[in-house]
Amino acid sequence: MADTSHTAPQTPATNATEETTPSKLVLVDGSGFIFRAFHALPPMNTPDGTPVNAVYGFTNMLSRLTADHPGAHVAVIFDAARQTFRNDIYPPYKAHRPPPPEDLRPQFALMREATEAYGIPSVELEGWEADDILATYARQAVAAGQECVIITSDKDLMQLVRPGVTLLDPIKQKPIGPKEVEAKFGVPPAQVIDVQALMGDATDNVPGVPGIGPKGAAQLVQEHGGLEAILAAAPEMKPSKRRDNLIAHAEDARMSRKLVTLADDVPVPLPLAELRQQPPDRDAQRAWLERMGFNSLLRRLGATGKPRRKPAEAPVEYRGPEMPQAEGTQPPYGPYATVTTSQQLEEWVASAREAGVVAIDTETTGLDARNAELVGISLATAPGRACYIPLRHEGTLEAPAGEQLETARALELLDPLLADDSVLKVFQNAKYDLTVLHRAGAGPITPIDDTMLLSYVQSAGAHGQGMDELAERYLGHKPIPYGEVTGKGRNKLLFSQVPVERATAYAGEDADVTLRLWHALRPGLVRHQATALYEGEERPLIPILEDMEQAGIRVDAKELQRLSEDFSARMAEIEKDIHRLAGRPFNVGSPKQLGDILFGEMNLPGGKRTRTGAWSTDSSVLDELAEQGHELPVRIRDWRQLSKLKTTYADALLKEMDASQRVHTNYQMTGTITGRLSSSEPNLQNIPVRTEEGTRIRKAFVAAPGRVLLSADYSQIELRLLAHVAKIPSLIEAFRNGEDIHARTASEVFNIPLEEMDSLTRRRAKAINFGIIYGISPFGLARQLQVSQSEAKAYIEAYFARYPGIRDYMERMKAEAREKGYVTTPFGRRCYLPAIAERNGARRAYAERLAINAPLQGGAADIIKRAMVQLARKLPQSGLDGQMLLQVHDELVFEVAEKDAAALAELVKKEMESAAQLDVALAVETGTGHNWAEAH
């Protein structure tokens, strides 16, 4: 039956009777939503300290529910008790489930109060699960001719889907019908019970049949039908472990089917007709919301509540900086114009000049800007006013592309606008669009703004920076998905094959959204004190990185080939050793086979299984086994390291090398929360440092004939920043005097005179110095220094005793993160840390380590970005024949004519060391060579 909730409201009868039945019943799986909200939201407390994060999520859902489904029958279904009829069938059913978390227990009663405050019936019944009550009401609703919508994310309720019954995911707001059920289980809803009976459910202690997972269960149901048909056919199946298990565990499967089948004949305490929303008592509702401290919900009711106190140790929410959504009546998104003639384009250029700002977006054949072909360009000159200029649409016999401008002609008309200093050009991910346009023949494009970077400098880490996410967040608008335009899977089209009419709707919206985002985000720079970051670092870096990517760096194909062959030979030798230690040959690259060897055959201690049931063999597992003295894990680590270097660098660089024997990395400007650049294809950030293999890989990066590579690297920049922000007098003095900082640290921490310092003690001090920056633990330091944890702990305690200011800094950063949800670099960059509010201890501890390190790593990123901007201005003025090619963390790499190498090294050192003024001077080390290894 159709959803009529968005039709024009009807005038209600004055004396509506109970026989008046709405066309829709909306049921909320209250129990499921409670746990989802509790784990999804950070800690929140009422003014009296009662935890209410789950209550807030639940109440917010109720608020949406009443708005989205006016006039429908509505009820929230709760679980009343843990013991049900299923425990009589199988006592272990759900027996191992832990009790609810302490912070959740006081919230159950409050959620029942919430339903009362909103005038919504709630139903629960001793001895029955909420799922059974939902099934009963769903059956009754269909029988009464109602459409039933169940708001839940519980897969167990998918068995209820049928004509008249759908599910709705409360978080994703995604309807779940027969197609979605079949995609999840591999069978229609009517056969979900049979699949569940075969596979069981470890969460609820439903046994199922051993060895049969979701895919295997679905396959059996598809081939044989229901459970009884499968069990009947089992003796005739091909001999296998699965066949034996089906025969041996037939009764377990039958019992499991009883456990997973939802009862739809529950003696529900409220008749279907009484599941009616009642108009809430607004005064009582406001009083309840005020007691909870839910001010945002109060504002929706037109009331203003008292601010809720935020305990320092329990932040309320980390959504990023508040930037208002567009308010009032906004122009609709489309329809948009298709520009196919010179006259039409000239009119749009004139409109852009008049507006003084134009958003521009490109449509291409791929995501790699250096290889993608330009298909079309879209422009937006005002919210709701945008066009699409198709250039290379192919069309089909059924749908010809029609008239289009030649690319050269379109760019000829656009070039004066693109170069016009009086018209701001706005992009989302400008570096990509600039690369595409320049490759297509466009001239200079200036000035520019980038909405992705406008958002990034204000909210790094708080959320993603993609256009779709920003549009939903700041505009309240969900753009057309790309896959909806091009299709997916086997039938996916290139954008050049998309019909022009459909392309116009998509591309025009992209430009329109970009312009609206600019209006929403640009004013926030001043409010969030991010103007200097954006104007001084991020925006000017766009053309600098574009030039670096286009230049690329030369590689020595013969050296890479030798490196690949050497790695292969060494891997083969290690593989022989691994097979000897294992007692038999196996696929070393197979984690499953390795797990079976280590924990199934060799019975080594500490084995952990993954969700799939296989043994975990990740690096942490191998490290732990290696520390226990087992040789095989050590050799596996050696083999994996060589394999990674071979595939990631030696082989990949050969494939990515172009005709000029250069490789071109792609820099991501928003890939980290600290402002650091990341790179891909190839990733040059993770080449091992100070290892033989890393040196050999760098040796394959070479200068062109007659030129050399120049490397300029900040020396100990994060330690210098630590001395600066933590104000440690002795460290500041050591840096100012040019002392060996690690020897000085060792001398002060271990009370050893500098002249008596030995290399081992200095190495330990160095490990602590760098480890402290990353919040190293006694366990981690012990592993690194190969000492006991108690000894490592003593080192760290001695370090903090000598430098208490560092501990104060660390605690200050963690407290700032908990209070604000972010920390800042010395240059004002916000680094958001949502996980600081996590209940999971490991994730929260990781966020605390980030809170300590992010200001230092982010500060270093700010400094090198400033240096790059300065150098990009100074280098053309110097007359030196050199070019910036790479940025790798704290290092810049240039290619320069041999005759200019010394002069460029002097210029680079000067500009990098003057990029920021700290309590300690910045120091830069330079080197030159015909390859990167020589220069590094």
TrEMBL record:
All copies of domain DNA-directed DNA polymerase family A palm, residue ranges: 694-900
Biased composition (Low complexity): 7-22
One term of GO molecular function: DNA binding
Family annotation (InterPro entries): 3'-5'_exonuclease_dom (IPR002562), 5-3_exonucl_a-hlix_arch_N (IPR020046), 5-3_exonuclease (IPR002421), 5-3_exonuclease_C_sf (IPR036279), DNA-dir_DNA_pol_A_CS (IPR019760), DNA-dir_DNA_pol_A_palm_dom (IPR001098), DNA/RNA_pol_sf (IPR043502), DNA_polI_H3TH (IPR020045)
Domain called 5'-3' exonuclease: residue spans: 23-278
Disordered as annotated region, ranges: 1-22, 301-336
Catalytic activity from the UniProt record: DNA(n) + a 2'-deoxyribonucleoside 5'-triphosphate = DNA(n+1) + diphosphate
EC number: 2.7.7.7
Pfam families named in the record: 5_3_exonuc (PF01367), 5_3_exonuc_N (PF02739), DNA_pol_A (PF00476), DNA_pol_A_exo1 (PF01612)
Domain spans labelled 3'-5' exonuclease: 336-526
Biological process per Gene Ontology, one example term: DNA-templated DNA replication
Keywords, in A-Z order: DNA damage, DNA repair, DNA replication, DNA-binding, DNA-directed DNA polymerase, Exonuclease, Hydrolase, Nuclease, Nucleotidyltransferase, Transferase
Family assignment from sequence similarity: Belongs to the DNA polymerase type-A family.
Function: In addition to polymerase activity, this DNA polymerase exhibits 3'-5' and 5'-3' exonuclease activity.
Alphabetical list of NCBIfam families matching this protein: pola, PRK05755.1
Subunit organization: Single-chain monomer with multiple functions.
Protein name: DNA polymerase I
